[in-house]
Amino acid sequence: MTIKTDTHPCPQFKRTNYTSLNGVWRFESVGDKKLSAEIVVPFCPESALSGIGETDFLTDCVYSRTIEIAPEDLNGRLALHFGAVDYIAEVFVNGHFVCRHQGGYTPFEADIAPFAHAGQNRLEVRVHDDARENTASGKQSAKQQSYGCFYTRTTGIWQSVWLERTPRNYLRSVRFFPDVSRCAVDVELVAEGGGTAQIAVFYDGREVGRAAGEVGYRRTFRIALEEAHLWEVGNGRLYTVSIALDDDRVESYFGLREVRFDGRRFLLNGKSVFQRLVLDQGYYPDGVYTPADDEAMIRDIRLGLELGFNGARLHQKLFDPRYLYHCDRMGYMVWGEYPSWGVETENADALGQFIAEWIEAVARDCNHPSIVTWCPINEAWENLDDNRRVRDPRFVESVYHVTKTLDPTRPCVDTSGGYHGRYTDIFDVHCYYEPERFVEQIEAIAKRDELTMEKTYAPDFAEENIIYDKKQPIHVSEYGGVAYGHAGKGWGYKTAESEEAFVEKYIETTQAILACDKICGMCYTQLYDVEQEQNGLYTFDRKAKLREAAVKRIRDCNCTVAAIEKREASV
Fold first, then answer.
1. CA–CA separation, 570 vs 112, rounded Å?
2. Taking the alpha carbons of 206, 409, 136, 460 in that order, is the dihedral positive or negative?
3. CB 351 within 8 A of CB 328
4. In sequence order, which ranges of 251-406 are alpha helices (DSSP H)?
5. DSSP reduced 3-state for 234
6. Rounded to whole angstroms, how far apart are CA atoms 217 and 193?
7. Start-end of H helices in 382-522
8. Three-state secondary structure along 158-170?
9. Per-residue model confidence as pLDDT tens digits over 7-47
């Protein structure tokens, strides 16, 4: 059995007996902005693809539609799935309260069989969402309009909705733990009600491993693989998996790969690999948070690959599982990042909800081989709107420890850029200096192992006694941000007046990073413009800014062997 490239919303946990509920729903805004219209789900009402395109605050709204349920659908469990609803969702069926979910980026589900009947049923989703509250909202603007590096808001349903039929005893989850050295995989099953499990692993249609046994609630099976096919950069060799628990059947996949650090070197399957990443914010001119189709997702990955990047930092947003699926199969490394902006990390008031949703995020994405680093928080130094308020370091440290408990198999950056806590696997920095000063900072790292950047990037954070220890891996996880070829109303961290000047800035800064044998990776800001922030390598609608000769120079620069890739393994 092989998994075909289809449109199932969750490629890593697929059942064949599902029904998509994407399409036309009724939408009403009941907050300050009164609105009543039809909406195309899963596109948010702020987007053009939704058919509405209203970008004002829509703090409270109601989605509704009727669904047809057959008598046989009620014989077992009838699960209603939501990929993501921003921010608080309450679900009702035929007027009966079904469930409540808080968190705008993670999936949730509920069995609606007890509330449904054969025939027409009314489904209603009530939503509250306000980016001005102390909640994770990423780059969504808390002002009326977009500004700076904050963009159009996303309200309500923005990922797929579907119904799925299962027996009363069913598979709740699967987790894969690949073992490269032993050419094996541990498969952890969690079941509701228990049963007899049958697991078959395939590669390119050939069965290469099998296991079976009873599952009460949770059980891990070790499966030796007859063939070794490593997941590598540019070659996402995926094993497909068929799992049965009595009458319940699920299809999934995994990649045989290992990521870890050896001293400062990042190792993929034991081989030193420099992370050549580009910042991808996951915004679309027509869909805001939601791409029009799979081709829009694949296009962004291809754009990165064509420029010589081997991955992306998926910035301040949990990307659609189908995007991650394409990263998996194309061998494109990514950072899994939480949309932490909007949460006041100077106090612990929102820590519980932050961790609750982050746990859901790690659970959703832990099987993706493309994710090589967890990044729960971005730039948590001082509050963005009030530089007199310094964050509580316990917030960052708590999130780091939770992450490592949930998944000890990947590195974790406690907070990307700014103040690090006492615990982080990577000491990363953000730097948007002009090339001359930028090169000076990189040379200070190379020659003296010193981080001498200004306050927000300083090595000695006196307020919290956080000191760069000259041993940790260093990743320049944001740099560049040069505006070129924009419409004149946008902005960038720097500007270039010509294509030649842009390419020269790019090459000078990037070569300095690649030449430093203490730096394990980089991330250029950014792949494409986003609304008024027009410092991308492509325009917001993904049109080329640079001629092919300039693209080739950037690609050749990115593909240069990094100094750290030449270093010997640490003793």
1. 56
2. negative
3. no
4. 294-306, 321-330, 351-365, 393-406
5. coil
6. 7
7. 393-406, 435-448, 499-514
8. CCCEEEEEECCCE
9. 899 999 999 989 999 999 999 998 777 899 999 999 999 99
Backbone angles phi, psi at 522, to 5 degrees: -145, 160
For the cut 90, the answer to whether the pLDDT of residue 256 exceeds it is: yes
**Would you state the structure tokens that stand for residue 205, as one six-digit string?**
């249609």
Which amino acid appears at position 374 of this protein? W
Enter the tokens of residue 88: 């608080």
**258 has a pLDDT exceeding 70:** yes
- For 524, half-sphere exposure in the C-beta direction (CA atoms, 13 angstrom radius) is 32
Three-state DSSP class for 128? strand
For 469-522, write each residue's pLDDT tens digit: 888 999 999 999 999 976 667 999 999 999 999 999 999 999 999 999 999 999
DSSP 493: S
H-state helical runs in 33-84: none
Q: Six-digit token pair at 373?
A: 């680093």
Count of residues making up the chain: 571
Residues pairing with 315 in the sheet: none
How far apart are alpha carbons 362 and 407 in whole angstroms? 8
pLDDT digits (tens, 9 = 90+) for 126-156: 999 999 999 999 999 999 999 999 999 999 9
DSSP state of 542: -
Element (H, E) at 550: helix 548-558
Q: How do beta strands 119-128 and 88-93 pair? A: antiparallel
- Asked if the bond preceding 42 is cis, omega within 30° of 0, the reply is yes
Q: What is the pLDDT of residue 453?
A: 57
> Cα-atom radius of gyration of the chain, to the nearest Å?
24
- What's residue 2's pLDDT? 30
CB 372 within 8 A of CB 335: yes
Determine the pLDDT at residue 464: 44
Q: For residues 140 and 342, what is the distance between their CA atoms, to the nearest angstrom?
A: 8
- Per the CB < 8 A criterion, the answer to whether 318 and 361 are in contact is yes
Mean pLDDT on 328-344 = 96
In whole angstroms, give the CA distance from residue 99 to residue 125: 10
Q: Which of 424, 428, 404 lies closest to 414, judged by CA?
A: 424
pTM comes to 0.95
Average pLDDT over residues 225-230: 98
Rounded Cα distance between 18 and 83, Å, is 14
